């Protein structure tokens, strides 16, 4: 359940981050747009009145602001403005720097030449919001740097506060997640316990049924009904064993007893053990197994992984078809592929093949004798070895591609270490 907790906390963290990021983005953009509208309204009035802010009465301000849908102007506005103008008088540029101290005539003329050479009548230039009159004879530069700085400061404060709240929300959910996943953990524990108990309880009656069938066969000889009993008992016993194996694998978060495993030797040995099965279907066995592929892992689990995928290929390979086993090692991963010719179901969801008891076609269960648990075991083994597995339908068959990490370090379980010390 640790993975579930991590997923819940990660989901909360990402959700909070996205929400706060979008909030900051929209607030910042909204304030920037608002400030640009306010500056444009002021420069427009300045241009209309020849570069001077007109004196207005209170009703004038109210009507003016009503038209703008904002309260931009008031009686103190003229005293807060910092601006300068550049006018063209008979081909000579004249500056008016009465209402600003940070700009000299040289800089004012340079800014005027820059904006006149552009294509836009309004915009920003070196931190000034400018507007060019319709006849091009007057340019107003409004210094709204203080307002922009205030917006940036507000956005910075929002950013810092957002980080604080994201961290706090994540920490709170980390502690709460333990209680959130507790019902799921209890349900999973009870499910696993039920599978274990039921499997153990089934073993005794299955053994008795099998023994009785052997006695009947010894006394009365083999017949159709005894063979059916023996066959079905064998199938159920195999299913019980697979469920117990899968249950034990799901109980551990990480594997122990990791040691170097000769994957080439194991792949060849398993392939040899299925040679007769392939012959019974007239299926060709093709091996592309690189020699001396050594991988750190749990030897019994890796051998079972190869066995499960080879057995799966032997069950579903078409008559007179082909099974191909590929093994190669690359810098980060060891790759294995188990391919068998067949007619893939185009409508099947092959990502669900690794779910317990899932089958694309239920009728195949009776034909192949499988239980739909083996591939779940294979996926769990691959996951424990920090790898991945996928089923890929091909034009003339189905391939299982396996990647196993080469970065696992050899280690022994504490139980094994203690037993060796004794």
Describe what you observe in this structure.
This protein is α+β, with helices and mostly antiparallel strands. The chain folds into 3 domains: 2-149, no CATH class; 182-251, Helix Hairpins (Orthogonal Bundle); 259-405, 2-Layer Sandwich (Heat Shock Protein 90). Helices cover 56% and strands 17% of the residues. It is built from 13 helices and 12 strands. The chain has helices at 2-48, 58-68, 77-80, 105-116, 145-180, 182-220, 224-251, 263-273, 275-280, 299-316, 364-368, 374-384, 414-421; strands at residues 83-89, 92-96, 122-125, 128-132, 138-143, 259-262, 284-289, 294-297, 322-329, 333-341, 388-393, 397-405. The strands form 3 sheets. Strands 2-1-5-4-3 form a 5-stranded antiparallel sheet, sandwiched between helices. Strands 7-9-10-12-11 form a 5-stranded mixed sheet. The protein has a two-stranded antiparallel sheet with strand order 6-8. A hairpin with a 3-residue loop joins strand 9 (322-329) and strand 10. The radius of gyration is 39 Å and the shape is elongated. The relative contact order is 0.07. The model is unreliable at 362-366 and 414-422 (pLDDT under 50).
Features:
422 residues, disordered C terminus, 3 domains, Helix Hairpins, 5-stranded antiparallel beta sheet, alpha+beta, Heat Shock Protein 90, elongated
Structural class: alpha+beta
Question: What is the H/E string?
Answer: HHHEEHEEEHHHEHHEEHEEHHEEH
Rg computed from alpha carbons, rounded to a whole number of angstroms: 39 Å
- Write down the overall geometry: elongated
- Major pleated sheet: 5 strands, antiparallel
Could you name the ranges where pLDDT drops below 50 across 5 or more consecutive residues? Answer: 362-366, 414-422
Into how many domains do the coordinates divide?
3
Number of DSSP E strands:
12
What distance separates the N and C termini?
34 Å
Oligomer: single chain
């Amino acid at each position: 359940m640790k993975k579930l907790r991590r997923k819940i906390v990660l989901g909360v963290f990402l959700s909070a981050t996205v929400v706060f990021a979008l909030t900051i983005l929209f607030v910042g953009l909204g304030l920037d747009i608002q400030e640009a509208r306010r500056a444009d309204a002021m420069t427009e009035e300045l241009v209309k009145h020849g570069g001077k802010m007109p004196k207005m009465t209170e009703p004038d301000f109210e009507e003016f602001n009503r038209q703008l849908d904002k309260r931009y102007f008031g009686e103190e506005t003229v005293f807060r403005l910092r601006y300068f103008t550049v006018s063209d008088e008979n081909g000579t540029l004249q500056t008016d720097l009465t209402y600003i101290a940070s700009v000299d005539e040289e800089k004012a003329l340079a800014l005027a030449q820059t904006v006149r050479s552009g294509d836009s009548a309004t915009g920003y230039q070196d931190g000034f919001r400018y507007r060019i009159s319709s006849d091009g004879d007057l340019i107003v530069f409004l210094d709204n740097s203080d307002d922009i700085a205030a917006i940036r400061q507000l956005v910075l404060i929002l950013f810092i506060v957002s980080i604080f709240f994201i961290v706090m929300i994540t920490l709170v959910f980390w502690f709460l997640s333990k209680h959130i996943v507790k019902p799921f953990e209890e349900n999973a524990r009870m499910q696993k316990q039920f599978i274990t108990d039921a499997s153990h309880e089934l073993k005794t009656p299955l053994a008795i049924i099998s023994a009785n069938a052997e006695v009947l066969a010894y006394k009365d000889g083999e017949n159709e009904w005894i063979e059916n009993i023996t066959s079905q008992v064998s199938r159920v016993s195999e299913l019980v064993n697979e469920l117990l194996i899968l249950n034990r694998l799901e109980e551990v978060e990480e594997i122990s007893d990791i040691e170097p495993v000769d994957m080439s030797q194991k792949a060849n040995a398993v392939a040899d053990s299925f040679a007769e099965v392939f012959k019974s279907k007239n299926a060709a066995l093709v091996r592309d197994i690189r020699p001396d592929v050594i991988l750190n892992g749990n030897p019994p689990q890796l051998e079972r992984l190869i066995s499960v995928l080879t057995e799966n290929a032997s069950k579903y390979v078409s008559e007179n078809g082909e099974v191909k086993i590929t093994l190669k090692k690359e810098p980060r991963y060891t790759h294995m592929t188990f391919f068998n010719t067949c007619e893939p179901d185009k409508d099947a969801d092959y990502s669900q093949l690794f779910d317990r008891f899932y089958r694309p076609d239920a009728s195949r269960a009776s034909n192949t004798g499988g239980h739909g648990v083996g591939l779940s075991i294979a996926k769990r083994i691959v996951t424990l070895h920090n790898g991945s597995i996928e089923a890929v339908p091909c034009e003339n068959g189905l391939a299982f591609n396996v990647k196993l990490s080469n970065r696992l370090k050899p280690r022994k379980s504490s139980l094994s270490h203690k037993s060796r010390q004794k």
